[in-house]
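Example record

Each entry pairs one chain with its bound ligand, glutamic acid.
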Amino acid sequence: MAKEPFNPFAMAQAQFDKVAAILDLDQATGELLRWPLREYQFSIPVRMEDGHVRVFRGFHVQHNDARGPAKGGIRFHPQETVDTVRALAMWMTWKTAVVDIPLGGSKGGAVCDPHNLTQGEQERLCRGWIRRMWRDIGPEVDVPAPDVMTNSQHMLWMLDEYETIRGGRFPGMITGKPVGMGGSLGRMESTGYGVVYVLRECLRELGMRPNDAVASVQGFGSVSQYVIDLLTQIGGKVTCVSCWDQNDQMAHSFFKKTGVQLKELRSIADRFGGIDKGKARDLGYEILPGEAWLEQEVDILIPAAIENQITTDNVGKIAKSVKVIVEGANGPTTPDADKAINERGIFLVPDFLANAGGVTCSYFEQVQSNQNYYWEKDEVLSKLDVKMTSAYMGVSDMAQKRKLSMRDAAYVIAISRVALACKNRSWV
Ligand code: GLU
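Structure tokens for the complex follow.
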């Protein structure tokens, strides 16, 4: 029988349905939460450098805003689909709820490959995206942020377009802005550092020392780079990193037994985190196949790239030595692979808890933008640590009390909070 194509939204709904049953959610709440509140699909014409116009497809999905304005990133990805964006919007709702910040969940995207777009074309695409969506986003409605292949420059173009249309200054309209232009110190680091804060708590719980911890990481984007940064700072070691190679159109893994060096890898990577194979080899890295990151004899695996990476096809290749998986990416593990991981007794910290550092810092950025007063980096990061640690503790307590996996426990907390907000507003 042909294998069904992976559908992240079906996966997000299946995860939700499982926990809705555990919680015995009433029918109306279940129906409301298993679908987005609103979704938008649109076309964005962009004048290319050679003068012709190319039309890009755009999506935006607001899953839920019962707890506050919807919040989530905008992705630029060639394989973007409405179902990817739906799933990611839903996961944002659970993410903001599990860390208990007063925001909902949304996600946006455009089908494009920024590798092949000039800066000018990217700017026009960002402005075009806002021209389609400006009526339905804003500081009190829905606040976008960076995500896969978008960064602070894209956010600033989007803000500028929004402010030009609206006629005013609205720094709380978007987060992940450049520092000095309404951005928060620490926002760049926040998702990766947040992953390490929860990993640190998890190691403590399992009686493992960060000093002896050896990890393998998938991806070399902003999440992964700051995971490597902080994990190394607290004494751990990352021996393998994988990334996408745009020239070869496939992924490779980069291995160094003594531990990869962030600085040297950064110096030979492009702005999308693509590491130069030849230069890496010269620096003593072994170049392995893309999936080799998953097969390493390490204690910790950190998928920090995109969805659908640990599947039934490769879950069996995870080494016996692996004790912990922390999901830096959104939706990296399919439900069947998740089950296999659980059965093997590997401790998994789920995506919407593990990678909530980014949106938590976005929330701090909004607070700072609204006050028009910006905090020192240490203050931002220590507040982030407090939020992430207490969210982790809450989920871990729930998992132990109700004998649930960390994923199901995180869902129980998040869904209960959102369901309660819907109930309190008399929506259901
Ligand atoms: N794109 C990030 C995420 O998936 C951050 C979202 C935000 O800051 O709003 O969590």
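The mean pLDDT is 97.
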